[in-house]
Design a protein that fits this description.
Strand order of the largest sheet: 2-1-3-4-5
Oligomer: single chain
Order of helices and strands: EHEHEHEHEH
CATH class: Alpha Beta
Structural class: alpha/beta
Shape: globular
Number of strands: 5
Number of helices: 5
Helix content: 40-55%
Distance between the termini: 12 Å
CATH superfamily: Response regulator
Largest sheet: 5 strands, parallel
Number of domains: 1
Radius of gyration: 13 Å
CATH topology: Rossmann fold
């Protein structure tokens, strides 16, 4: 799968890239929401992994912008697991959620499941 990971935490992006590249996926990194939109305009992705809270443009804003033109699968990575935050992300167009912190194995399982759909 061709995957875009957008998260302002560089260490988390590195962990995700290392984990998923070992599984054969191709990853592109964005450090904030604005950069994620720019990457999305330049390339086609099978999956977006988006942090909820990022500088310049939140994950929610990114989802809304992406949903204007695409039905790509979107996983919201978030430490904000309150019901209202999850509902806001779902209403914006998020397909799945992965609560931070998460194990690399859980990430692999989710991506594998999405790839098979």
């Amino acid at each position: 799968m061709n995957i875009l990971i957008a998260d302002d935490e560089e260490v988390l992006r590195m962990l995700i890239v290392d984990t998923l590249e070992e599984e054969g996926h191709v990853l592109t990194e964005a450090a904030d929401g604005h950069e994620a939109i720019e990457c999305f305009k330049e390339k086609t992705f099978d999956l977006l992994l988006l942090d909820y809270m990022m500088p310049r443009m939140t994950g929610i804003e990114v989802i809304r912008k992406v949903r204007e033109t695409s039905d790509v699968k979107i996983v919201m990575l978030t430490a904000k697991t309150q019901q209202r935050n999850l509902e806001e992300a779902k209403e914006a167009g998020a397909d799945f959620f992965l609560a931070k912190p998460f194990s690399p194995l859980k990430l692999i399982e989710l991506v594998t499941e999405l790839e098979e759909r």
